[in-house]
Prior knowledge:
Helix content: 25-40%
Mean pLDDT: 87
Oligomer: single chain
Amino acid sequence: MNQASPDKKMNYVVYWLGLIDYQNAYHLQRKLFCNRRDGRIPDTLLLLEHLPTITVGKSGRLENILASREQLVQRGISLVFIDRGGDVTYHGPGQLVGYPIFDLKGWGRDAHRYIRNLEEAIIRTLNDFSIKSGRDRSHAGVWVKDKEIAAIGLSLSKWITMHGFALNVNTDLAQFSLINPCGFTNRRATSIAHLLGQEIPMAKVKERLLVHFAAVFHTDIAIGTDNPIKGHYERKTPTVV
Length: 241
């Protein structure tokens, strides 16, 4: 099992930002990155949903976007080129996005274990909804058979992480027809709602994810109560049930 070392229990703060524009969230990540680098804030997890956006990572190829810019504008979808790893992905309402701003110097300086831990927390969360999922050895993320239910794309500088994961909860899967998700031409995306045949409250998925995040990363969690830059929070540790 891929977990942070149990000999030193870490702490981080989680903030729920709701529905937010991609660029606004990115600029917030950059500020938090600088603050974390300088030791002004603890490890921080942002949870949110995005307005419709297609992002292209550092290894992304434009041919994996199957719609013209005009078509994207007509659909109200932004196009953003970004400094994370990976290819092309879609973000939109109904998708639970997580951006950990973690200093991996406190997590063993092991980026591969960090990715496995993100996957493990998502896999356990899906299991709570009776969805059996797993990994693809050749590609980071979480899969249900041959369909991607959670994408992972990161950047790492001075051992501090940015970007993160996107779990399809009630996501409009039709939007994925505009791209080759993560560069795959022969694989599609799926969601919790699609697999269960009904929409699931985002708050319920978020709650279960935080429980498993705490367990997998062996952490205590503080709940942010204000703007993340201000750093106001109260301590609260989810309990595994």
